[in-house]
Amino acid sequence: MIKIYNYGEVSNSEIFARENISANVRDIVSEIISNVRKNGDKALFEYCLKFDKAELSSLEVSGEEIDEAFSLVEPEFIEILKEAAENIREFHKRQVRTSFIINENPGVVIGQKVIPIEKVGLYVPGGTAAYPSTVLMDSIPAKIAGCSQIVMVTPPGKDGKVNPVILAAVKIAGIDRIFKVGGAQAVAALAYGTESIPKTDKIVGPGNAFVAEAKKQVFGTVSIDMIAGPSEILVVADSTCEAKFVAADMLSQAEHDKLASAVLVTDSKDFANKVSDELEKQIPLLERAEIARASIDKNGKIIVAENNLSLAIDIANEIAPEHLELCVDNPFDYLDKIKHAGSIFMGKNCPEALGDYFAGPNHTLPTSGTARFSSPLSVDDFVKKSQFTYYSADALKAVSQKVSYFAKKEGLGAHAKSATVRFEKE
After folding, report:
1. Residues belonging to the active site
2. pLDDT for the residue 421
3. Using alpha carbons only, what angle is made at residue 336 by residues 330 and 337, rounded to the nearest 5 degrees?
4. Phi/psi of residue 379, each to 5°?
5. pLDDT tens for residues 141-180?
6. Element housing 233 (H / E)
7. What is the mean pLDDT of residues 97-120?
8. Do residues 60 and 179 make contact, with C-beta atoms less than 8 angstroms apart?
9. At residue 136, does pLDDT exceed 60?
10. Phi-psi region of 183 (alpha: psi -120 to 50; beta: other; left: phi over 0)
11. 201 CA to centre of own chain
């Protein structure tokens, strides 16, 4: 059963506690990365057999496999995928940044170029569920940014095939190359390259604890979007909400993973008890009841800020959740008060699942409190910036002594000399 806390009656350390990655995961991932770097495809085939129980003859998904998978998916779902892709595309198109030039002083031109990252690797989870939504969320911003090579990795099933709905999304998104490999070994392959899988410049996408740790360990060799932890939802709700709706929304994340967390912050103890009762009614009815049960019992919590919705908002900001539902009337009255959240769902008719699949904003989000300083996956993740500076001889001469003075204050004589040498008499 979910734990209920009255805010102020227990320590904040207990209320705000989160699961931490174990040293055991770090050690296992380090060994996997080392093996892939040393043995390339051979290691990937071995890990595929060990972890996915699939014996492969080739790591790359062929065009024929994609076409076959597309034909196996119901036309109705294909149309839904296309509509979702268009919603995602329309949202992310508005994130595009432009280069700029400043030419306000004679002989001086400065500016910034926005340049697509050339080679990006997309990680799409598999295992206990298939995520065609992540295919779209990872790839569409990369396409809009103009990345020239987009490579996707995802674990195969025991039959050595990728789930057809994932490949249907791949075809709709227009991804260049897809490989049947998952876990930390897939991250290592994208970071260092193997005989089959090209080395990429950046790796994005969510995954389990091993994938997150692998991204952490390869960062610096490649860029990453974020180090994502287990999925999270926090619902802020008052007593006017329907308890069964709130419980259903909490379970939408609890069913992801036994380590996922579902949190309710409410201003009513009576409502907290109603939601707890609803969770007990709904969990046994879920297909993934065992996972949801473990998540709710171990990581779920209800925090009561009695008769104080403003305090409930403060608690939400302290937790800085991945997904935040504002299940209140007039939610836009509270939007400016939310300082830390990955994605915010407004009002009583906006379940988080809308964002997972269809609305358009990205569902690859900061977790584990990192919404305090990081952002959802976006077009920005797939570009880099270069600055440029031009000074004419006259423009340099006008400021050379100032630059020299500044450099000498830092004790860097060669810097100072470089600013004035062009104007010294022979």
Report:
1. 322-323
2. 97
3. 90
4. -60, -30
5. 999 999 999 999 999 999 999 999 999 999 999 998 999 9
6. strand 232-237
7. 97
8. yes
9. yes
10. left
11. 17
